[in-house]
Amino acid sequence: MKILLACNAGMSTSLLVQKMRKEAAARNLNVEIDARPLNKALEVIDEFDILLLGPQISYAKKDAQAAAGDKPVLVISMADYGRMNAKKIIDDAVEALA
Amino acid sequence: MIEEAQEKESFLDKFAEVSAKIGNQVHLRSLRDAFATMTPVYILAGIAVLINNVVFPLFLVDDALAAVQYWGNAIIFGTLNFSAIILAGLVGYCLAKNKRFENAVACVVIGIASLVIMMPQVVTVTIDKDAGTVADVSGAFITANTGTNGLFAAIIIGLLATSLFIKLSGIDKLKINLGEGVPPAVGDSFNVMTPMMLTMAVFAIVSATLAGAFGTNLLAIISAIVVAPLKNVMNTGPLAVIIIYTFANLLFCLGIHQSTISGVLAEPILTILIVDNMATFAAGQPIPADHYMNMQIINTFALIGGSGCTLMLLLDTFLFSKNRTSRDIAKLSILPGIFNINEPVIYGYPIVYNLPLMIPFVLVPDILIAATYGLTCAGLISPCVVMVPWTTPVFVSGFLATAGDIRAVIWQVIEVAISMAIYLPFMRISEKAQAKQLESEGV
Questions:
Q1: Contacts of residue A38, Cβ cutoff 8 Å, sequence gap at least 6
Q2: Could you tell me the CATH number of the domain that includes residue A71?
Q3: Where are the domains of chain B?
Q4: What does the pLDDT average to over B65-92?
Q5: Residue in chain A lying closest to B16 (CA)
Q6: Residue B102: its chain A contacts at CB < 8 A?
Q7: How far is CA B225 from CA B69, B144, B220, B230, B275, in A?
Q8: Distance between A51 CA and the closest CA of chain B, angstroms
Q9: Looking at the annotation, which residues of A are catalytic?
Q10: Better-predicted residue by pLDDT, B302 or B14
């Protein structure tokens, strides 16, 4: 499973990525997680299974979905994002891919 | 009461929707992407300018100084003095990507070639600086056109040429069909040939007409009718910049990134102004007053801890708050906050849809923009002459951006104090409101 996160500059999502990787390792999940700025993310979406957008770029969901084709594109909720709730975000991603 | 609340919400929704539309506009977005790609180049130029003009003169003079300064000048030559050419290609590339046009590399070529096509073929150069003699020469590019002064022309011509090229490429009749069995790469290069030649031919006709009939060129025209008025708008006091950032930060309070607005409406021109300043400073010239307002006023003096200057909210929380949730979020947010990244604060504290904190979040940056601009005009702090990354921590950023003016650092200390004072009462109101809400929910 390969998860891609995107936000405005790829800075704040990279914080979240660290937490998600830790969480995934603790659960023994076989996942790769990466973060990119939005425009770069849309270029490399082919290499991933799911795209998670930070809430600050929720307006770009339509464009992102167009680029992602039939891969799921989710917007992380403001509360989960603010509290860097890696557990919940991974749960949501796993559920979307199931 | 309920109706009123709904009305308010629908206004905010509308505002968010319109902003997202502006931020999503393909040309503006491409412009923002192009500048984002260009930023490392400008940062490098900034480092070179600092080392050349501040560090080297500390221990070297005369010929030895000139000899080592060749290093920094070489970087400035390849970055600042050539930035219009680079940007024209990047604008073409980003527009192609954002329009999902397959042959993005062709758009790099189109962007650069069209900009150069529009340049004057005879330029005036200074032969002897001291005597002030000049001469008209042909077969030369001048950095006034290829460098920071040409950035606007690069944007406008790059966008126009690429748009035309992409449009022409969509016309099937212009495609040259080589039949099956031809390698796809060869086929692609032939497919773009006609549209490419047509685009450049059209631009060359415009260039020839302007030169032949009017004795001018598009770069000069753009400079006169676009650049000059725009720079004026940004410098008739800090008003225009403050209005844009008020809306931008308000938008962030609704959960959408502020650069959706500011990144397309203010940042390109403010970036051009600071890049201009770097070139001016590197050349040893004084910074003109119409360049006092620039990107660094925002990134260095009004973005302390991120949008809304939330670092000071965190400091207030550590010093004065007893609320455990707030303190937990502050602990989580302080380290990224030092580097001006604050999404955890915005969404976690939260600022979003939290009226008491939305007020200082919008107000504090506005006050700091106005005050910093005022202090620069009054000569109390040096104008910003170096572009430093927006992730540079406070105090270091002020020192670097002004090429080592200690007064700028002192001003940043004062800024921190002012902002903490403004945030404090709103933080208390927010905590009271939250406590009340918990009570009414019976928790």
A1: A6, A7, A8, A53, A57, A60, A64
A2: 3.40.50.2300
A3: 79-234, 246-440
A4: 92
A5: A59
A6: none
A7: 36, 17, 9, 9, 20
A8: 18
A9: 7
A10: B302
- Put simply, the answer to whether A82 touches B257 (Cβ < 8 Å) is no
What does pLDDT average to over chain A? Answer: 89
What residues of chain A have any CB closer than 8 angstroms to a CB in chain B? 7-9, 11-12, 15, 37, 39, 43, 54-60, 63, 78-79, 81-84
Q: Tally the domains of chain A.
A: 1
Tell me what the mean pLDDT of segment B212-223 comes to.
90
pLDDT digits (tens, 9 = 90+) for B314-357: 999 999 998 888 999 899 899 999 999 898 899 888 998 889 99
Contact criterion met (CB < 8 Å) for B345 and A82: yes
Residues B30-53 pLDDT 10s: 888 898 888 888 989 989 998 988
B98–A82 C-beta distance less than 8 A: no
A58 vs B98: CA distance, rounded Å: 17
This complex has an ipTM of 0.77
Residue A68 structural domain: 2-97
Region of B267 on the Ramachandran plot (φ > 0 left; ψ -120 to 50 alpha; else beta): alpha
